[in-house]
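Worked example 2:
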Amino acid sequence: MNKRLRRAAATVPLLLVTVACQAGGTDGAAGPAATPSSTVKPVFEQRLDDQLSAATQATRASGSARFTSTVTYGSAKGTAVERTTGVLDYTKGTARVERSFDVPRRFPQDAAFAFGREPGAEGRETYRVEGSTIDYRTGGGTWLRYSASASMEFAEKIEDFLTHAGDAAPWGRTLAEVVTHADPEKNPSPTDGGGRRYQVTVEGREAADALPPELAEAFTNDMSAEVALTVDVDKGGRLLRAESDYTPILEPLHRAGVLKGVTTLRVAYDLTGHGGQSVPAAEGGEKTEDAEKALTPLDAVKPGACGSLDTGLGGPDLVRAVPCGEKADVRVFGQVRVSEKSVTGDPWQFAEGRADEGCRTEMDAAPDAWTAGSVPRDTFVAWSGNTTAHSEDGAAPTVTGDYACYVELR
């Protein structure tokens, strides 16, 4: 029997610690734009190392803009592209966004999983942002609302997703966030129309702010690779374009087992129409649901039940419970728990192996109707959103995790 096995932490190198804790939040989402003041120095009169920070403020002070953000992953098996476009209202801290993606069928599978997609995936998603709240429009027209005010348990599950509510702009995870980390060391060159072009470098872990959260988790504080960033601003110092070749950070990522097979990685960001844009109003009659109430953790879905992955999250950790039929994307046939002390070798691989064995046993025992519709045929997935490995005092690690065993239905 063929199988495909995934885990939520596939992109994150193991960190062995004596005591592990993680705190996160969504504070810092873009708020109202600053009001221009005659006492504020023009961007080009600021100290050189403050000019790009001042450019971010000047951009926000313009009130609004249209943007396009593009991430391009090149490989010998084709090029995957994720493009995000939309309108930003800096004054109100709102945005309306469409995100499209196109991943070739022969694109390296593990690399596609690392940035939250699958080979052959193609589609378009719609989002709207207000402060630190993000709404996703499902295929049925209902909006799912993800809020920073959710319960702690649910907020932890959507913590990475909520980073799409940015700091530099209402929609985050773009080069606009990376620009705020850049400190120019040499004078910019002039461009047509009185603007300036800056050539700067940023550290890899700061460059991660422009990548999908699934991938950004792989960047560690000791990553020494840097990327070059080109930033264009207009005569008023407002951001027009930023672009960067992230290929230099692929080598350390490959050593960590991430994005293997990807040979080039490029990111671009464009802004137009400063001050003359408005975020489209919500259409009348559209329904909005609280995502916390509408969704179920995959590892809590009862065997035999089905779920929809139309959540905007890009993964199966949370699903909408639906009747098994044309709207169902997955069908759960079992749940297994992995718990082992003093693991030798790679604890993630160990956990996957045990989960594989457990799910295979569950599949053999499940009614045929629960697994007959798998796509591809005779395949299953073992998924965990909470597998952890930790070590105390240098001892061999302990690994634990709850895995949902399911088949993909399309």
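The chain has two domains: 31-272, 295-408. Residues 295-408 form one domain.
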